[in-house]
Every structure is written in structure tokens, then in C-alpha cells.
Design brief:
Distance between the termini: 123 Å
Radius of gyration: 51 Å
Shape: elongated
Strand content: 15-25%
Number of helices: 1
Structural class: mainly beta
Number of strands: 7
């Protein structure tokens, strides 16, 4: 019996005109019951406040020097007919001893092509005729 029940019983007995004293006698404590099932997981809480910015670290050591790169090529701009001038004169690139011209192959097909030994005519409206020999204009 618990204490609340003893108080109610005492009040009942006193209220009925009986003057008995109720004595609570406690017995030995019972065994611990089995553990219940795990309940549902609670909601995830809000993120905490962002912490303070840390100090900037020390400068690192200078790394080792890298390997030498490949030798580069120089290029030169060459006019096939330097004595005639227009607003948009054709020019060629001389790279590694070879002449290259821009070939208009149509929409999205433009490309650089090597001018091999032979005779050519410009397409910039001047119709200048020139000869290529050994990567040079004659």
C-alpha cells in the first residue's frame, strides 16, 4: 500500500466513528522490472552558433624548384605581299620554320593549314600571287 492509500483508509475509518490507528508496514522491495522498448527518435535540434574564426597559420616553407620545361617555339607574322596594303591584308604565321595560313572551311570548320612548297594566291581581294619554298615566301 502506498502512503496516499493509507491516508484515505485512515480518513475513512475515522469518518465512520472508528478510532483505529492504521499502521503501515513495509515489506521487502520487489525485483526491478524488465527494460521497456526503445522509444521513437526525437526531433533533431537546431545547429549551434558558428564559432569564432581561428588565427591565420604561419607561412609554409618554399617548395623545391620544378623540372625545366620544354623548349618553346617562336613565331613570326608574315605578309605574303608586303608591298600592297588593305584594311584586312592576309597574314601567315611562321612557326618552327613552317608557314601556316587560316583555311576557311565553312561554318565552324576554320583551321590552320601548313603552306607546303608551291605557288598560291591571296583571297583578301588583292589576288596577290606568291611562292612558298622551304618555309619562306619568294
Amino acid at each position: 500500500m502506498n502512503k496516499m492509500m493509507a491516508v484515505i483508509v485512515t480518513m475513512f475509518l475515522v469518518g465512520c466513528g472508528q478510532q483505529k490507528v492504521v499502521e503501515l508496514i513495509h515489506g521487502p522491495q520487489g525485483e526491478v522490472g524488465a527494460t521497456g522498448e526503445v522509444g521513437d527518435r526525437g526531433e533533431v535540434g537546431n545547429d549551434g552558433a558558428t564559432g569564432a574564426q581561428g588565427e591565420v597559420g604561419a607561412q609554409g616553407e618554399v617548395g623545391a624548384t620544378g623540372a625545366a620545361g620544354l623548349n618553346g617555339s617562336t613565331f613570326e607574322v608574315v605578309k605574303p605581299c608586303p608591298s600592297t596594303h588593305t584594311a584586312y591584308s592576309e597574314i601567315f604565321l611562321k612557326i618552327g620554320g613552317k608557314l601556316y595560313a587560316l583555311f576557311d572551311g565553312g561554318p565552324h570548320l576554320d583551321r590552320l593549314v601548313e603552306l607546303v612548297d608551291g605557288t598560291y594566291r591571296t583571297t583578301d581581294g588583292r589576288n596577290c600571287i606568291f611562292t612558298v619554298s622551304g618555309g619562306n615566301i619568294q
